[in-house]
Write a structure and sequence with these properties.
The complex is a heterodimer. By secondary structure, chain A is mainly β. Helix content of chain A is about 5%, strand content about 50%. The longest helix of chain A has 12 residues. Classes of the chains: A mainly beta, B alpha+beta.
Chain lengths: ~250, ~230
């Protein structure tokens, strides 16, 4: 039986996670998805009006659609120390989507993990763990946000959704995950997508995103992608070994 | 209870931002990539004389505004009034729009970013209101691990943190909305806050926190400025 509790918020893209063993006093808010679809013309949550329902064993499902553009189904399944979010996306348009994505927001602002300065935000670049503040950034007209290209995906500059933020350092390519380590250094939460299209963080809300990629999608095509959220009592290196085994990112 | 008096800042030029040499030195010291300070281009700015409030606007002062105008109080106030023990703390959970509304009611305005920075650092390019060396006892910041969780402090609690003009609480406590916007939806926030952990982000020139002008965060407050005649 899963320990983590999920609850969808009707009419919104939000779901709340509580009863998280590694963070017993904290709540985490998911904005899954904040935007979805063609990375050249993503649809934001306000237009989607998701419907949530509990589907048993603590799992929740939501669905949303925009006629003649897309429909999706999201299933969030909790486990003992992680949560899986699987999105099934259908291209209902007449266009080929060169890159398709979900912009999945994992908000840690109501938890002990809260880090509005990115001092405890970690990624892995060229085989080395790095704090975000040690990597180049681009100061845009939204200074709290930053995006990063990921290995195996096109550079951010070639993905319109990413390029539009004007906040992606050209010379950083990270693995498809981002973690925030607790101040005690012994616990962390992380978001990992398989496959990932890009990473995002917003210091304003202490939120992190690993955006799942659905690849190139033809009209009528349906594809699936996974985002896994970990909540572990492990230091970064130990968790990483486990995550690599489980996710093969 | 503190009286929020006005302090006149004399006209004149000052150096705003951070010089390229200082950027490199600070980035090394605090283990940041220098690009994290890339929004702080150093330049000489002329600022006409103006007046600025000595302290950030408190819950007590903001409550008067809400009572007088019917303006919606911050969401965390129970029954529309601030908690008794926080009356002299800076108001939080206010957007840039809320701050502008308060300032207008007071017959004032928000300070421009250049005005705010000059009021905080004077003309000698100092990093912090009190000088160039970070003093952990000169502002309300996130000094964990320590007893209890960090929070705002009553305004004026850190007299050694006064700026060269005697303006208080310019760094730490609450990040303060300025009048400037980086784009139509993003307002400039200055000064770091009670939750800020790195002295790098408590510097006067730092501006990484600037965010959605409609966002009401527990980190955001403000003070007012006005013309002098």
């Amino acid at each position: 039986m899963a320990s983590i509790r999920v609850e969808g918020v009707q009419g919104q893209m939000a779901a709340v996670l509580s009863n998280v063993p590694a963070f017993p006093n904290d709540r985490f808010v998911l904005g899954f998805p904040e935007a979805i679809g063609d990375a050249a013309r993503a649809i934001w949550f306000g237009a989607l009006k998701p419907r949530w329902r509990e589907i048993g064993d603590g799992a929740w499902e939501s669905a949303g659609e925009m006629p003649d553009e897309l429909r999706y189904r999201l299933v969030i399944t909790p486990y003992e120390d992680y949560v899986d979010a699987v999105i099934t996306l259908t291209n209902c348009s007449h266009r080929v989507w060169q890159n398709s994505m979900a912009f999945n927001c994992f908000n840690c602002g109501s938890s002990v993990l809260r880090d509005n300065e990115c001092l405890r935000h970690w990624v892995r670049v060229k085989g080395k763990f790095q704090r975000l503040v040690e990597l180049p950034r681009v100061f845009s007209d939204r200074p709290t946000v930053q995006l990063y290209s990921v290995e195996g995906a096109p550079p951010g500059a070639q993905i319109p959704f990413v390029a539009n933020f004007k906040a992606t350092p050209a010379d950083v390519v990270a693995e498809g995950w981002m973690a925030i380590v607790a101040p005690d250094g012994k616990r962390l939460a992380a978001t990992v997508s398989r496959p990932a299209l890009f990473l995002f963080q917003n210091m304003e809300y202490s939120c992190i995103h690993s955006a799942p990629s659905f690849g190139t999608m033809q009209p009528g095509q349906t594809a699936k992608a996974l985002t896994r959220l970990y909540f572990v009592r492990q230091p970064l290196g130990k968790w990483y070994e486990r995550m690599k085994r489980e996710m093969e990112v | 209870m503190v009286a929020n008096e006005w302090i006149v800042i004399p006209e004149g030029t000052f150096i705003m931002g951070t010089s390229p040499e200082e950027v490199l030195r600070l980035a090394r010291q605090y283990r940041h990539h220098p690009s994290w300070l890339s929004g702080e281009q150093s330049r000489e700015v002329y600022v006409p004389s103006f007046a600025i409030q000595k302290y950030p606007v408190t819950n007590r002062e903001y409550a008067e505004f809400c009572r007088a105008t019917g303006y919606p109080p911050p969401l965390h106030w129970r029954g529309g009034t601030p908690p008794e023990e926080l009356l002299d703390h800076p108001v939080v959970f206010v957007s840039q729009e809320d701050a502008e509304a308060y300032a207008k009611w007071l017959g004032a305005r928000l300070p421009g970013e250049a005005e705010w920075e000059k009021a905080a650092r004077g003309t000698d390019r100092r990093l912090y209101p009190w000088g160039n060396r970070f003093d952990p006892d000169a502002c309300c910041w996130n000094r964990q691990p320590r007893n209890g969780m960090p929070n705002t402090a009553p305004v004026g609690s850190f007299p050694q943190g006064a700026s060269p003009y005697g303006v208080m609480d310019m760094v730490g406590n609450v990040a303060e909305w300025c009048a400037d916007r980086l784009n139509p939806a993003v307002g400039v926030l200055k000064g770091g806050c009670w939750l800020t952990r790195s002295p790098l982000n408590l510097r006067i020139a730092a501006r990484n926190m600037s965010g959605w002008r409609t966002n009401r965060s527990d980190m955001y407050g403000f003070r007012c400025a006005k013309e002098v005649r």
